[in-house]
User: Which sequence fits this backbone?
C-alpha cells in the first residue's frame, strides 16, 4: 500500500501516491522492473466524473512518450490520456475494461490502465513530475477550479 500526500479543497479530498511519477495531465507511472504500470491520479478521476467506459491501446501497441494510450468516457467528458512513457503495451487491465468504475473506486490500485515495457525509462522519467511537485501543482489547480465555481 503506497503512502499518500493528501489535501482537501472545498469539499473534495485528493490523494497523491508517493511511490510513482506523474505527467502534467495526471497520468501516473509506477516502475516495476523494466515495466511501467500506468493509471489516473485521484485528482484526474474525480475531476472527470464517473467513468462509464475505458479503452486502452491493445497489447503489443507501440507508444511514444505523449502518444494517446487510452480514452475514458464519463458522463461529463471524453478524455484522451497520453502515455507517460515510451514503449510497448504488454498488459491491459481487463478487469478495469469490464468494470471501469474501478478507476473511480481505486485509481492507485485495481483501477490501473496498462503496463508498458519501457524503451527509455531514464529519459522519460526525467520528463515526469515527482509526487511532491505533482501534489503542489494539483492543489493549485483544484483551488483555481473552486474559485471559478
Assistant:
Amino acid at each position: 500500500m503506497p503512502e499518500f500526500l493528501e489535501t482537501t479543497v472545498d469539499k473534495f479530498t485528493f490523494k497523491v501516491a508517493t511511490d510513482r511519477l506523474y505527467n502534467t495531465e495526471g497520468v501516473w507511472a509506477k516502475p516495476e522492473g523494466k515495466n511501467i504500470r500506468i493509471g489516473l491520479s485521484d485528482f484526474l478521476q474525480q475531476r472527470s466524473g464517473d467513468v462509464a467506459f475505458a479503452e486502452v491501446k491493445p497489447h503489443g501497441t507501440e507508444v511514444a512518450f505523449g502518444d494517446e494510450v487510452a480514452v475514458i468516457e464519463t458522463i461529463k467528458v471524453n478524455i484522451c490520456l497520453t502515455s507517460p512513457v515510451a514503449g510497448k503495451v504488454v498488459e491491459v487491465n481487463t478487469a478495469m475494461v469490464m468494470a471501469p468504475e474501478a478507476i473511480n473506486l481505486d485509481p492507485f490500485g485495481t483501477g490501473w490502465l496498462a503496463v508498458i515495457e519501457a524503451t527509455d525509462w531514464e529519459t522519460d522519467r526525467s520528463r515526469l513530475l515527482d509526487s511532491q511537485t505533482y501534489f503542489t501543482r494539483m492543489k493549485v489547480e483544484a483551488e483555481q477550479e473552486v474559485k471559478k465555481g
Remarks:
- The CA atoms of residues 23 and 33 lie 19 Å apart.
- The two ends are 34 Å apart (CA to CA).
- Residues 4-148 form a domain with the OB fold (Dihydrolipoamide Acetyltransferase, E2P) fold (CATH 2.40.50.100).
